[in-house]
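Checklist before submission:
- one chain only
- standard amino acids only
- sequence pasted in full

Submission:
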Amino acid sequence: MPKNEEAAGTAGFLLEMGMLKRAKRSGWWIAGVKDPETIAEHSFRTGVIGAVLAMMEGADPAKVALLCLFHDTQETRIGDIPHIGRRYLQAASNERVTADQVSAAHPAVKAGVQQVVNEYETGDSLEVIVAHDADKLECLLQAVEYREQGCANVQPWIDSSLATLKTASAQALAEAALCMDSIQWQQTYLA
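Returned file contents:
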């Protein structure tokens, strides 16, 4: 493929990723959240949480952040299917969607993105475990914030996220977050 076509294919992938800034996380609508976070907002904080958890667990923070950054990129094509919806739908695998998304991209981008998504979906390394914990911990933190804003129906998200955490660091952070409000962090600096 000529280089200008590779650049166009890669630019197309990057433009498609911009959709994640507009696409809402639909599971929160079930809980009654009127204006839920976007997929991009979720992925950003998941990446930060992943890097922090990796530091605490002795994993590679850069690798975990990368896994987290790409973990929901497929949702530009299949949407954010809530867990209840998965009972009734059979979506293509994330690996297959990713392969389509990067099919016209630069070969190094194509191979790199596919490798990251495949590892997140099928790997069992400490980095993958931490990345999955970051995803669940982010969901728990978001539920805590929505609960604080008056949405009382988020407890199932808190409970299910807490139950799936595997690392001691993620469990400890979750327990600490459950005892805090969303702006308590600033109290140290105002005193």
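Reviewer check: The chain has one domain: 3-186.
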